[in-house]
Design brief:
Blueprint: E1 2-5, H1 7-23, H2 27-44, E2 51-53, E3 56-60, E4 66-72, E5 76-84
Helix pairs in contact: 1-2
Length: 94
């Protein structure tokens, strides 16, 4: 399965990683690893996670207050957002 990141999702991941790394050396790497694990899990079981809006689903990150929002088809998984749980619900939809 191909994994595609919307530019906005890439930016959110990089910003969060930087924020965590500035708080504690190595924490940014741990955040990035949690994102990687979540995406790998979603790609193995794309329909195994909660639907949140139409075709979109979310997978919660371990240890961090974030979710990966994605949609999938038979051939690809599109990451549309790395959503912080304190943000206004639905902000990522446009």
């Amino acid at each position: 399965m191909d994994i595609i990141f919307r530019p906005e999702a890439e930016m959110e991941i990089l910003e969060a990683r930087t924020w965590y790394e500035l708080r504690s050396a190595g924490l940014g790497f741990e955040f990035a690893r949690a994102v990687e694990v979540a995406i790998e899990t979603a790609s193995r079981m794309p329909h195994g996670f909660e639907k949140i809006d139409g075709e979109f689903r979310q997978i919660l990150l371990c240890r961090f207050p974030y979710s990966i929002i994605y949609r999938s088809s038979e051939s690809e998984l599109v990451v549309v957002s790395c959503y912080h749980h304190k943000r206004k619900p639905g902000f990522w939809t446009g």
